[in-house]
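Can you give me the bound-state structure? Components:
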Amino acid sequence: MTNDCELLKRAAKGDEAAFLAIYQRHQGPVFRFALHMSGQVETAEEIVQEVFLALLSGASGFVEASGSLQGYLIGTARNMVRGQLRQARRFVDAEPAAMDGDPLDGLSKEQELRELRAAILSLPPNYREVIALCDLESMDYSQAASHLGCPLGTVRSRLHRARAILAAKMQRRVRCTA
Amino acid sequence: MNNEVDLIDEMRRLASALPREASPQVEQRLLAILRARQRRKTPVWVYAAAACVLLALGLTFVHKRQTTPPSSDLVYSVPGFVALPYSQSGVPLEDAIVIRVQMRPSDLSSMGVAVPAAASTAQFKADILVGQDGVARAVRLVE
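Here's the bound-state model for the whole set.
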């Protein structure tokens, strides 16, 4: 498998195949992270496009020594999602219970999953990030810490707190529906 | 969902139920942008060639300016014409027209051309050489 940096250099010179190789290798994790954070497929796709455009334009400033390309791309997506969340907060109620274009629409029996998803989306971004990486993407703590640019202990404590909030929310919902 | 293990299992189920990748349209859009950028990108040699052409044109212009005689010399070289003092424009005489006019000796002296004291007051014909900038450069007496 060709090294990411080599592919990136070739892509910067206009090599379409090299760009496609990078895109196909990394778009999945970037897309899923953006989807878990935003809750919208369209928003996640927009973020994927912006992240790879920034990489193409060379404005992204990726340095091999500073970490993996995937970590770098997820970091870029994280900044974009946070920017979008800040903008959205000015106009939209923070409660994400009503989700247009929900990817789970086809799964009418999966009410519990839908509620869990709504609960995840209602978490503060710091907690949502660790849930997205560690629980939804099954990433190990050290990798998540590297992607989020924070110490391992912070990831652990945020994850513990986020899971506790989620469990409480889900129990509250169960009690309400019972 | 009573404990953390159940919660994590549920989250794994949720993750597997959600789309895993961006739609192919995103890839197509990115490829279209990449191709458009490639078309717009001008090779370095084009800039180098343009710089050489500009440099050559500049040198030619400077050389021409140094070797071109002043416009008054051109006027003097046309037979019969006398250059008008104080009317030599800074613009080199590249294109000119000749206008035939009727003048009096006093008109000629007002243009700065010396008129013999014995000249009559009757009108005479003259050709005025006018440069491309509209400035009269020289005069020639016809009669």
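A couple of observations. Residues 71-141 of chain B form one domain. Chain B has two domains: 4-66, 71-141.
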